[in-house]
UniProtKB/TrEMBL annotation:
<keyword id="KW-0813">Transport</keyword>
<dbReference type="GO" id="GO:1990745">
    <property type="term" value="C:EARP complex"/>
</dbReference>
<dbReference type="Pfam" id="PF10474">
    <property type="entry name" value="Syndetin_C"/>
</dbReference>
<feature type="region of interest" description="Disordered">
    <location>
        <begin position="1"/>
        <end position="27"/>
    </location>
</feature>
<dbReference type="Pfam" id="PF10475">
    <property type="entry name" value="Vps54_N"/>
</dbReference>
<dbReference type="InterPro" id="IPR019514">
    <property type="entry name" value="Syndetin_C"/>
</dbReference>
<feature type="domain" description="Vacuolar protein sorting-associated protein 54 N-terminal">
    <location>
        <begin position="54"/>
        <end position="345"/>
    </location>
</feature>
<keyword id="KW-0175">Coiled coil</keyword>
<feature type="compositionally biased region" description="Polar residues">
    <location>
        <begin position="8"/>
        <end position="18"/>
    </location>
</feature>
<dbReference type="GO" id="GO:0042147">
    <property type="term" value="P:retrograde transport, endosome to Golgi"/>
</dbReference>
<dbReference type="GO" id="GO:0032456">
    <property type="term" value="P:endocytic recycling"/>
</dbReference>
<dbReference type="InterPro" id="IPR019515">
    <property type="entry name" value="VPS54_N"/>
</dbReference>
<feature type="coiled-coil region">
    <location>
        <begin position="216"/>
        <end position="243"/>
    </location>
</feature>
<dbReference type="GO" id="GO:0015031">
    <property type="term" value="P:protein transport"/>
</dbReference>
<feature type="domain" description="Syndetin C-terminal">
    <location>
        <begin position="723"/>
        <end position="957"/>
    </location>
</feature>
<keyword id="KW-0653">Protein transport</keyword>
<protein>
    <submittedName>
        <fullName>VPS50 EARP/GARPII complex subunit</fullName>
    </submittedName>
</protein>
């Protein structure tokens, strides 16, 4: 059976039937004939039955080729042979053989196409092998020819040529190696020349070449040396980078950046740069402060070098404080300017590289983006470092004992530094503001306290003499107010204004643009001193000899030569203090001469040395407020205290009098009284006696208060010859009014400085305090008016007059002439006083008004003392009063005459009927109870009976009862 299997795998062109014929005799003996096979094929056999027949074949028939089937079958035969059994067994074997043969024939027929195809491939392979044999034969023949055609010498020539080529390459390599060995010298030269990009380029090329020849043993050592050199270059590059922090040089920085770009370390360079800037700030400030500390210490002790910067700042002396601060700011400016120029360089560099090649875009964009963010972030960091360093310096010294001008310089420098910060990174410099605010408040408390004490001393030594100033005097002429003439924003430092005042084009430039290439904004304050001197004082109080002569000219001269041009052009309205809209006629000017004493000095402000001192103080306070807005409210509060104290002093010296209440003239308004009470409670220190003097918690409050001032003993207010110190009273009062006017002119400027939340305080100060200054004229000049005329003598003279006459008189009484003489004497005294001090029109009007009011009230009082009076007597009263008015109108141009109706109404009330009298009593509360009662009693018997009298007196008593 194994043989049959092997036949199935053989190749040949014979049919399966012919192949069977080639089998061995033994095998052929067992295979059926063609006829039998055909019969077998023709006999339909059930495939399942056929498979069962095949399965019934013994396993041994499927063994290897060495199996002998005949021998096997013979050995199976029994000892005793039975023909029938043998035939049956033979038939069985035939059936098995027939089944196998059929199965094999079927398989052969099934595989026939594959067999034919494979046979064709074998044929093609045989053809190819024959072709290959022909090619090999030809090649061998040609090789034989070549061997015979070339000699050994020719081959040797070729070998030498190849060797020469190899040696040429070797020579080139050796020359390169020699060049590499000599690069160290060139690299050192390049580093000395600060050609960092060239050195790095050369080093990188050497490294690349060295890696090409790394198979040479001598190159491996050179490679490591080049790596060390590259690291050394990086270190020197780092040092070069640090140099740009103080003095930025475009060419130098360009080289450094190019070198870092070659190294591929642009981002690392930026990190290092910020570290260097931080270090530069620290080293700079430390060295500046250390230099001043050691200079002032004056010894060689180096203990200061080991101190912390914060501790070092506490050793700065007062004399060296400002120079050190200035140098500190100059040095920090250099660092910030270098950073600003660094950013500028990168912006310009980025703009130049806006269109790089597409393939190199990604890395460069990432680098530029990183650098931009790092630089922008670094702005705030660097400014914060600067602030902290300057803050430590500011807080290291107690400035409370500084001179004012020195402290202003400090504020100016810090203000300029804050402006630098705003332009540098848009910062509001909260750290600097807080520190300088703390120092300013501390300084200002001490300064203001000292100034209040100084003001008290001035007031107590003030003799209230006129301070001679020019007629065109204005506070803008004082050094302290020069800053206002610059018309600049309060937040801009003086240096900025000085720099920008050179032209409109420069005003828009920032400090970094102005000082980009040279100069330093912190060098300005030395040149900021005013060179010109003040010229506000007039010699001897007059501006020229001509004016001095004019002082003594006669007022009744009708010529206009003695009237200054200023007065012809303008005069001050007596009621409002404002200038009229229209020009004034000559007649008007002449008519005003009698009241406005000493017209030739009409335009010269009335002020004292103390007033000038207060104005200068206000200017200094405003300067400080202008530079440092955070303490604006504290400063304005102190400014208000200066005015409060001056007003209170003038009132205390000249206006305090217990007779006000009894005068019923309303001399002190409720607003003025409230103001005076407020000042006394908040500012004036009341000397406490006994145990209450040491109450806990009152110490701080007392620090804010000042003792009440005392009038100088040199000022005499009781002499009738000087009209009870009228000159001093005029100087004191009008200097206060002048001061109030200056405060009014400053209101808009102060308002811009005041924080919005505190503006009501300023408005209240102006509406309730400053505006009340002119109201002090009434109580102060009333004291003069009350003593200047002898009203008691007039009452005595009136008491001697007989009023119950029966005929109408044509001649007035003597007391009227005496009173008018008193007024003439008063007018003469006013003229005498005006030769020393100009008496302004509002002052003369107040004085005349007071005198006339007091005279009229004295007349009413005299008429009220009359026991008996007839109708003719009342007519005489009217005649006297009309005579008084007629003569008085010639003495004064005050119109209308004050309290004229007060007298006339009282005289005419004599003629009233009972009902009208009752209504009169209810309507006219201005008369005293005594005056009203006397009116009723005098009328008794004439046209009022006793019953009516009782009724009217009861009405008067009802009016008086609520007052009790």
């Amino acid at each position: 059976m194994q043989k049959i299997k092997s036949l199935m795998t053989r190749q040949g062109l014979k049919s399966p039937q012919e192949s069977m014929a080639d089998l061995s005799p033994v095998e052929n003996f067992r295979i059926p004939s063609k006829e039998e096979l055909r019969e077998l094929r023709e006999q339909p056999i059930d495939p399942q039955a056929e498979q069962e027949i095949i399965d019934s074949i013994e396993e041994v028939y499927f063994s290897n080729d060495a199996f002998d089937m005949v021998q096997h079958e013979l050995e199976k035969l029994p000892p005793e042979l039975n023909l029938q059994e043998l035939e049956e067994y033979r038939d069985k074997l035939k059936r098995q053989q027939a089944a196998v043969s059929k199965k094999v024939a079927d398989l052969i027929l099934e595989k026939q196409p594959a067999y034919v195809k494979e046979l064709e491939r074998v044929t093609a392979l045989q053809t190819n092998l024959q072709l290959a044999a022909v090619i090999c034969t030809n090649a061998r023949r040609q090789l034989g020819v070549a061997k015979e055609g070339f000699t050994g010498a020719s081959l040797g020539l070729l070998a030498n040529q190849r060797r020469r080529h190899l040696l040429t390459g070797l020579l080139k390599s050796l020359r390169t190696i020699k060049t590499l060995q000599r690069t160290d010298v060139r690299l050192s030269e390049m580093l000395e020349e600060e050609d960092y990009p060239g050195a790095i380029q050369l080093c990188l090329e050497c490294q690349k070449a060295a890696s090409t020849f790394k198979h040479y043993s001598c190159i491996s050592e050179l490679n490591s040396k080049l790596q060390d050199t590259l690291e050394q270059i990086e270190e020197q590059l780092d040092v070069a980078l640090s140099k740009t922090c103080k003095h930025f040089d475009v060419a130098h920085y360009t080289k450094v950046q190019l070198a870092y770009t070659l190294l591929g370390k642009t981002q690392t360079a930026m990190d290092q740069l910020h570290m260097h800037f931080t270090q530069a700030i620290h080293n700079t400030v430390f060295q500046v402060v250390l230099g001043y500390v050691e200079l002032c210490a004056g010894n060689a002790d180096t203990k200061f070098q080991k101190m912390q910067y914060k501790d070092l700042c506490t050793h700065i002396t007062l004399d060296s404080y400002i120079p050190c601060l200035t140098d500190l700011c100059k040095a920090l400016w250099e660092v910030m300017l270098s950073y600003h120029r660094t950013m500028q360089w990168h912006e310009e560099h980025d703009n130049m590289e806006t269109s790089p090649a597409a393939d190199s875009l990604s890395d460069s964009v990432v680098d530029r983006s990183y650098v931009k963010k790092k630089l922008e972030h670094g702005l705030t960091r660097i400014w914060q470092d600067v602030q902290l360093k300057v803050k430590a310096y500011i807080l290291g010294t107690d400035m409370s004992n500084f001179k004012y001008d020195d402290f202003i310089v400090v504020l100016d420098v810090i203000s300029r530094l804050m402006q630098v910060g705003e332009e540098f990174c848009g910062s509001k410099s909260e750290v600097l503001q807080e520190s300088i605010k703390w120092q300013s408040v501390n300084y200002f408390k001490h300064y203001h306290r000292a100034r209040l004490e100084e003001l008290r001393m001035f007031l107590e030594n003030e003799t209230w003499e006129l301070c001679p100033v020019k007629s065109n005097f204005n506070i803008a002429q004082l050094h302290e107010f020069k800053f206002m003439g610059q018309c600049r924003s309060p937040s801009v430092s003086p240096s900025r204004q000085a720099a920008s005042s050179t032209g409109l084009a420069q005003e828009e430039l920032s400090l970094f643009q102005l000082y980009l290439l040279e100069g330093n904004p912190f060098e300005m304050h030395i040149e900021h001193k005013e060179e010109e001197t003040e010229d506000v004082l007039a010699s001897n109080g007059y501006e020229s000899d001509e004016l001095e002569k004019c002082v003594y000219q006669d007022y009744d001269n009708d010529s206009d030569s003695d009237v200054p041009e200023e007065l012809k052009q303008d005069y001050v309205d007596e009621q409002t203090g404002d200038a009229p809209l229209k020009s004034v006629s000559r007649e008007t000017i002449r008519s005003k001469k009698k009241s406005d004493y000493n017209l030739n000095k009409a335009n010269a402000p009335i002020l004292t040395n103390t007033t000038l001192n207060v104005i200068r103080l206000v200017g200094k306070y405003m300067q400080m407020m202008n530079i440092l807005k955070p303490i604006a409210f504290d400063v304005i509060h102190c400014v208000s205290q200066l005015f409060d104290y001056y007003l209170y002093a003038v009132y205390t010296f000249f206006g305090r009098n217990d007779m006000y209440e009894s005068s019923s003239l309303g001399l002190i308004s409720s607003r003025l009284r409230t103001t005076l009470n407020r000042i006394q409670e908040s500012l004036i220190e009341v000397e406490a006696a006994g145990e209450n003097a040491g109450v806990h918690g009152a110490v701080e409050e007392r620090k804010e208060k000042v003792p009440s001032p005392h009038l100088s003993q040199l000022v005499v207010l009781t002499n009738s010859g000087t009209l009870y110190g009228l000159a001093q009273r005029v100087v004191a009062t009008e200097s206060l009014v002048f001061l109030a006017e200056q405060f009014e002119s400053l209101q808009s400027h102060l308002d811009t400085m005041m924080p919005a939340a505190k503006k009501p305080f300023l408005q209240q100060f102006y509406s309730q305090t400053v505006s009340t200054a002119s109201e002090l004229r009434k109580p102060i000049y009333w004291i003069v008016a009350a003593r200047a005329i002898d009203y008691e003598q007039m009452l005595l003279l009136m008491a001697g007059v007989k009023w119950d006459i029966r005929e109408i008189m044509s001649q007035h009484n003597v007391y009227v002439d005496v009173l008018l003489k008193e007024f003439e004497q008063f007018n003469k005294r006013l003229a005498d006083v005006s030769r020393h001090v100009r008496i302004p029109l509002p002052v003369s009007n107040v004085l005349w008004e007071h005198c006339i009011r007091l005279a009229n009230r004295t007349l009413v009082e005299g008429y009220a003392n009359v026991k008996k009076c007839s109708n003719e007597g009342r007519a005489l009263m009217q005649l006297d009063f009309q005579q008084f008015l007629m003569k008085l109108e010639k003495l004064t141009d005050l119109r209308p005459i004050p309290d004229k109706e007060f007298v006339e109404t009282y005289i005419k009330a004599y003629y009233l009927t009972e009902n009208d009298m009752e209504q009169f009593i209810k309507n006219h509360r201005e008369y005293s109870m005594k005056q009203l009662a006397n009116l009723v009693n005098v009328c008794l018997g004439s046209h009022i009976n006793k019953k009516a009298r009782q009724k009217l007196l009861a009405a008067i008593d009802d009016i008086d009862r609520p007052k009790r």
